[in-house]
Amino acid sequence: MAELVVSDLRVVFGARKAPIVAVDGVHLVVPDGGVVGLVGESGSGKSTVARTIVGIGAPTSGTITLGGEDLLARRRGVSAVQRAKDVQMIFQDPYSSLNPRMTVGEALDEVLSIHTETPKDQRPASIRRLLDLVRLKAAAQEQYPSEMSGGMRQRVAIARALAVRPRLIVADEITSALDASVQGAVLNLIKDLREELGLSMLFITHNLAAVRYIADSVAVMHRGRIVEQGPATDVVAHPQEAYTRELVGAIPRIDNAGTDYLLRTLEQR
Amino acid sequence: MSQNRKPSFLRSPMGLASATVVGLLVVLAIIAPPLWGAQASTPNPANLLRGPSSEHPLGTDGLGRDLLLRTLVATRTTVGMALIATACGAAAGLLLGALPSVLGARAQRWFSAVINTWLAFPVLLLAMLMVILMGTGTVTAVVALALTMTPSFARLAQTLSSKVGGSEYLAAARLLGVPKGRQFTHYVLPNIAEPIIVNVTMSIGGGLLALSSLSFLGVGVQPPSYDWGRMLSEGFEQVYTTPTAVVGPAVMVILAGVSFGMLGESLASFLRERTRGRALSPAKLGPAPVTDPLELDPLQEDVLLDVKGLSVSFPGADGWVRPVQDVSFTLHRGEIVGVVGESGSGKSVTMMSVAQLAPAGAAVTAQRLNFDGTELAGMREQVAAKAIGTDIGIVFQDSLTALNPALRVGTQLAEVPRVHQGATKQEAHERAVEALDSVRIPNAAHRATLFPHEYSGGMRQRALIAMSQIGKPKLIIADEPTTALDVTVQQRVLALLRRECEDSGAAALVVSHDIAVLAELCQRILVMYAGRIVEDVDVRMLAHPEQLAHPYTRALAASLPDLDTDRTKPLATIPGEPPDLSKPVTGCGFADRCALASDRCRTEVPVLVQHRHGGQVACFHPQDGSSPEDSGAAGSETTLHEAHEEGAVA
Amino acid sequence: MSAPAVPSVQTTEVPVPRGVGHLGRWSAFFARRLLRSVVALFVIVTVAFLVLRLAGGDPVRSALGATADESVVQARREQLGLNDPLLVQFWNYLVGLFRGDLGSSLVTGRSVTELVAGRLPATLELAGLAFVVVLVIAVPVGLAFALLTQGGRRRGVETGFTSVTGFISSVPEYLFSVGLVVLFGITLKLLPVAGANHGAASYILPVLALGLGSAASLSRIARVEALNVLSEDYIRTARSKRLPAWMINFKHALPNMLTATFTIGGTLLSTMIASSVLVEQVFNWPGLGTAFVQAITTKDYGIVQGLAIVYAAIILVVNLLVDLVLAALDRRTTLLETA
After folding, report:
1. How confident is the model over A64-86, as pLDDT tens digits?
2. Of chain B's two ends, which shows fewer C-beta atoms within 10 Å, N or C?
3. pLDDT tens by residue, B35-44
4. Looking at the partner chain, which of B191, B486, B538 has a beta carbon nearest the beta carbon of A101?
């Protein structure tokens, strides 16, 4: 794993006449072995940041380095397999991020054959270990994604990313497509994996509470800019910026059960 | 989906029939020319233009040749031409459709403009041009047909491959460093192959008809060769004397056209059903399952809605699917009650059934469905809907799809006053603007004249709330009213909903998967799991999970991180999956995921009973240690949590 | 919240261009579509010009027959300008087209423009009437059967509908024509079967022959579209307002199913124009189609060339109109922004 440094990242979409600035001067550091949360609402630019870091989109300006090496320059120079070893992404929707025509075993075997020296006869053992790592039974490798629940699919997607042994993992809203009772399990899994494997991770979400639980530090994005960053618990407990305060105040809380909290928010505006 | 009952393609009567006919045609195309070819083209001057006889069942043509044999022999030419033209068109189309995906966006636009324009030109026009270039003949017809088919295949390939090209699984494959060739063979091809095969099959039928048209016009096959179209054109010349001459080729053309088309359609529906399963018809399924009759209490005075023994069933591939089973609850006037549950728990279906808006095909049964003093159970849906009138207002989940894209927002709001309150057009419009204004939509008079897509998401949701209010309902049902919204917008929408209820005195049933949303909004919540209500509890209890009675409710309240969750401890989770409701569930639906489940839980369905926390619970082992059923097994809170965590890891 | 909608899909933050007026987008859309049609027409004209010149053998010779005197052939070639350099010929040809000259017959030297002027109305009447019949049948039938078979109800009706319409749409127009001639003209002797000189009655069979197949396939499409629309959330919203059934079906469902139905209907119209050739042939209709078939049998490629351009132009104009109607129907104006 390695340190990710994003500096002065700008991403502009659209025609020259009516440009849309999706990301506007973002600085972000994910330390080696650290988990950083990137929080924002829809349209804040957080997903664009993620896609730029993994190389799905290109930045308009700015630099991205991984372990001190210029990632953007490196991408042009090395093979797809090498690029894959730098950053892996876990997508939001496990229903669409797995090839419907490949069993779980085939999907993992493909990655192992590309990224490891494991001989063919030893790959089944590696696949079992990977499935074990994400708390899936070995029998899962015979299944197609359509035969699995959302939570199981997301575990497969995590295992697939881990099989590459990337230096950085970008997790893009990985719990928001899942049911409440499954979300917690995936968060637990990420936390366990982090301890077991020392993952460096950029955890992107709209859910401040999830970030607070999983990340060391958090950056809050709003309209393409990072408006506040700091240790996750501090930012949530003592937000400094007005937007962060609004965000924290808007999170529905069980503690407000049976109160008129909602009606009071209406009076404040 | 069950493994043992996978529909076999040949099991469907249409698939079997069309496959048989197509098979016969292919056999005929192979064996007919060598068997009868010579005989069919030998003229017999003694036997010109005869009608049907025992010797010549379909009669003879102008040169005295047997029409039946000629019809059979012509199978090879006709079907062969159609196959060749379709194959060429499909190959060219696939190439043309797949090529732009590797070129830039600009080239892609040009390609699709060319394909779209080309698509407009029917086979006859291209045949006209080909005729000038190559004269009339078989090759001309085949080339013209292939050229006509190319753009439609190109468009299909383009649509399909761009769908795969934009898919997350292909994006993931690229990120994983999967080589380009393998991306194509293992990701793109398998995912576009089926619709293309289906389309090619159907196109053979269409191509066959088009080719026969060309031959009929004299543009296609030229004498002495002949196909069905040519034979029809020759037969038509004598239609006044021997109309039977057209029968053979006409029957064959139609038979072949229909069976290739049917084969394609059966293939398509086979593929559809293989992934989704086809629901059986209600006639085959028998009557929808009902629950055992309950003893009904007398109606209470201040109760607005009293539901007893509500069940909803849908026809499924293996029998009735029962998303809602034996649901009972009451709602008092002015009360806001939340309904929480995971996807598939039946919460939305329950609410829609109460509102008489269950999807078509649903079988809704209830022993009591009393709304505001009117008994709706047993009424026909239209009658019940009339009885409800505007007394139930509904806020739907997705405001973009819940509003009609073709009508102005103001018009959609004004319908209720217009239809139900006898307002004039002007009055109704004014009321619509007032309603929009009351949910704080700025510049409401102008916004009423806009279409839904011109609103932002939060504003659309507020417009939906305004619409649910405009009939002055006694009950508002909100189905996941904020699920698609950002938290800041969500808070505003929820606050407005709460205020509208307080102002108008309406009661509300709010469905959500997010227990925290309901905690802030409601007075009481109903927890649904696997089609049943498992707990009915005062919302204030949520802040004290140790007082909740059902293990599922407890886990639900504790499973999501809050802003003050202990980061050093794992989150409480529930192992396993909810049961499959297309199969009968015996006992408690939660038993398989519950660390405290006993044998009784797996055999007997727990019913809702009064509980000491003031609400009701359906559990044999309720969790605050009060149940007489549960003498020794009642674990403390810590054992429950530990049990769940172990379960999650195991 | 401010007015401009923020794109809500997180993974594709595709910006919507702002600040361009609705009228501006309309005229830009119209200009793009017009340009595309003009380019397509130019391509067709060029191809039509080239195929006649590049075709193997001498078209004039094959039109006048092998026995025609060489001097006659040469005179006709000279008269048609076929001995000029290719570019000069093309220029003259284009100039001629602009003046409304569609070339002339290789056999008689008669002007194609005159031929078209005399016969176009009959063809347009036939195709136009048939198209109206198709829409009038298909849309209500599709909606009615969608209402009947909604939510998997009445499986028998559904199977019956799909089999019957599937069968009818698999019967080519010329077979319909032959069948109708045999049934009504020869067996029952009820209706005229040839020509257009019998008043309204002479239209019945040709219009039916041309329209039935398309009506069947369009009503299948209309039913599927109507089923899609009826399962949309906004129909449930309308039901939740307890509106009368006619209001839900006609005010809320119908406009939304029309767009998709017209899209397919538009492509059907061009197919029908082409298919009218077959129907005209069977009913001996005094339109362009019979002239075209005659020109083919007499190998008069001068007429074929001119008619090909006329048919192409009709189809392009029809498609342009269909696109404009669709853009006007489509409230979300997605068409204006794409393509």
Report:
1. 999 888 988 888 888 888 889 99
2. C
3. 888 888 888 8
4. B191
- Quick check: do B71-276 and B303-529 share a fold? no
- DSSP-based three-state secondary structure for C17: coil
Question: Which chain C residues contact residue A22 at CB under 8 A?
Answer: 13, 15
CB atoms within 10 A of CB A143: 17
Report d(CA C305, CA C106) in Å as an integer: 11
pLDDT at site B77? 92
Give CATH for domain B71-276.
1.10.3720.10
ipTM of the shown complex: 0.89
Q: B518 near B510, Cβ under 8 Å?
A: yes
Determine whether the interchain pair B232/C178 forms a contact, defined as Cβ–Cβ distance below 8 Å: yes
A79 touches chain B (CB under 8 A): yes
Interface check for C19 against chain A (CB to CB < 8 A): the answer is yes
A149 and B561 within 8 Å at the Cβ level: the answer is no
Q: What is the dihedral of CA A122, A123, A126, A132, to 10 degrees?
A: -120
Q: Pick from C169, C296, C315: which is nearest to B136 by CB?
A: C296
Q: What are the residue boundaries of the structural domains of chain B, listed by start?
A: 71-276, 303-529
Strands B368-371 and B303-315: antiparallel
Alpha-carbon span B352 to B515, nearest angstrom: 20
- Does domain A4-252 fall under CATH 3.50.50.60? My reply is no
Is the CB of residue A247 less than 8 Å away from at least one CB of chain B?
Answer: yes
pLDDT digits 0-9 by tens, C292-326: 888 888 888 888 888 888 988 888 888 888 888 87
A13 contacts in chain C (CB < 8 Å): 13-15
| Helix (H), strand (E) at residue B449 | none
Q: State which residue of chain B sits closest to C174, comparing Cα positions.
A: B213
Contact between chains at B213 and C172 (C-beta distance less than 8 A):
yes
Residues of A in contact with C14 (CB under 8 A): 13
Residue A35, CB half-sphere, CA atoms under 13 Å: how many?
Answer: 22
On whether any CB of chain A is under 8 Å from the CB of B567, the answer is yes
Please say if the pLDDT value at position B8 is more than 90. Answer: no
**Single pTM value for the model:** 0.81
CA distance B197 to B206: 15
Q: Give me the residue label for tokens 């009055």.
A: B427
Give C150's contacts in chain B (Cβ within 8 Å): 360-361
Domain ranges of chain A: 4-252
Contact indicator for B14, B265 with CB cutoff of 8 Å:
yes
**Mean pLDDT for all residues in chain B:** 84
Q: What is the DSSP string of B327-387?
A: EEEEEETT-EEEEE--TTSSHHHHHHHHTT-PPTT-EEE-SEEEETTEE-TTS-HHHHHHH
- Number of Cβ atoms within 10 Å of the Cβ of B425: 11
Partners of residue C170 in chain B, C-beta under 8 Å: 205, 209, 254, 257-258, 261
Q: Which of residues 64-123 of C touch B (CB under 8 A)?
A: none
> Is a pLDDT exceeding 80 seen at residue B479?
yes
> In angstroms, rounded to a whole number, what is the distance separating the alpha carbons of residues A220 and B535?
38
CATH fold group of domain B303-529: Rossmann fold (3.40.50)
